[in-house]
Amino acid sequence: MRARxxxxxxxxxxxxxxxxxxxxxxxxxxxxxxVDLGLVYLEKRRIQSxxxxxxxxAARASDGAAAxxxxxxxxxxxIPDDVTVVPGTYVADRTIPPARRFTPGSSTPNAVRIxxxxxxxxxxxxxxxxxxxxxxxxxxxxxxxxxxxxxxxxRLVGLDAGIAxxxxxxxxxxxxxxxxxxxxxxxxxxxDALSFLRGAAPxxxxxxxxxxxxxxxxxxxxxxxxxxxxxxxxxxGSGARPALNALTAALSGTGTSVRLAxxxxxxxxxxTPLAQTGEALWVNALDMIGGAAFLASGGRQVGLxxxxxxxxxxxxxxxxxxxxxxxxxxxTGIGGSLSTAQQRILVELSxxxxxxxxxLSLPIMIELAPARAVLRxxxxxxNASGERTATLDVSTGIAALSIGAVPTNALDLGSxxxxxxxxxxxxxxxxSVTGVSSVQLGASTRSLTxxxxxxxxxxxxxxxxxxxxxxxxxxxxxxxxxxxxGLSLPGVIDPKGLVTGILGAAAGPIDSLLFSILGLxxxxxxAADVAVTGTRCGGAVLVQ
Length: 544
Description:
Strand content: 25-35%
Number of strands: 22
Largest sheet: 8 strands, antiparallel
Structural class: alpha+beta
Distance between the termini: 79 Å
């Protein structure tokens, strides 16, 4: 017996068995922990998917809480659980931190936030001293995707064909010869911007791309005008077809291109494929052509010598500096905005004087602050599409007209506009007449509601900063302060009265010139013209 016990003590066979048992127990514990954590992760994914679907359902429905509850029940969650449904307002503004874009509570909510929590009980973790359960939660915020597209620009009434041809020829580097009827036809032509972008893709060598991918490219001007005709509204394109063909032919010999993103914006559908269908995004053909001309000119400052093209004036030169061209908002949600660019325009005129008196010189400076339109609401009844409405808050900025000496940096948008200094209007031997004048057009804001009929017809509505009773130039001349230096014989020679009479007679031709230049540049003096060009309703999108 003693010998056997000695051999047993010396025998090392099976010494690793306790260590193996310990390691196996630990491995089983870790495996159990992995199973429990996997169940927790799976439940987290399941809850997040459920709250995402519930948030989308709640955002689309008139009764968001009931719709969210139904969606959660359909996905296997009992009610009541730890569920919170909070309606509110979401502002899609990148300058605001994401956590602050949603504001709970609102009389007109456009978004909903949902929180759901659930408890997952563990099977193995508790054995090794872990918690008996984990609380898993999910959060989702969805915004109602009631989108509208709108534009801001000018009515282009009073457009003079001769002045417009001269300006377009100067901007495009070719010869443009359109009639007044051509311009009117183009001003009344609607173009589907989305169809235009679909047609532009193959010309840019792009396939299976999004609207934003096409907008990032540049298109030859001849192709640009040709595509406008292809994407035009069939109901109103016949009258404008000859004008588009003439422009395409005039541009065919130029290699000038235009960057599409400077003219168009697809808005919130920009990241969707070109093949996606839906309501058209209407834009105005003449606005597009004018905007493309300014963008293609390369620089923002444009000089134009009209010579004797304006009846009633000996000579007219126009210099202007403009910001961005006319643009459409694309399909955007509540809070989306669109602004016209500030512009400064210098018009230098020579006006014929009476027999025996030298001609008059009249420098007119126009500064236009931005006009701004903000989408305040979109109403899209799901069961009555004809009752849709869209409301815009339209603000027209202050405009200033002045007669005065022109400083060297007069057209620099970055330089402040000071008070005008007297300009020499008449200079003759022993006599000179100087004058200075300025007119301020105050700012105003109005809310405009567009009905379904307005949207379908592309109806344009105008918000004016002021009512110019007869003539913009007459308003400016009424404030003109004239000073006579030199020869003046009361009862015989009245230089001040003579100059006033000559300028008053020239007010009509000057008005024609000013409104034609401003119209083609995409602005209207003292007013903003806006139109809602389309809506997309009934959808929702996750935002957080």
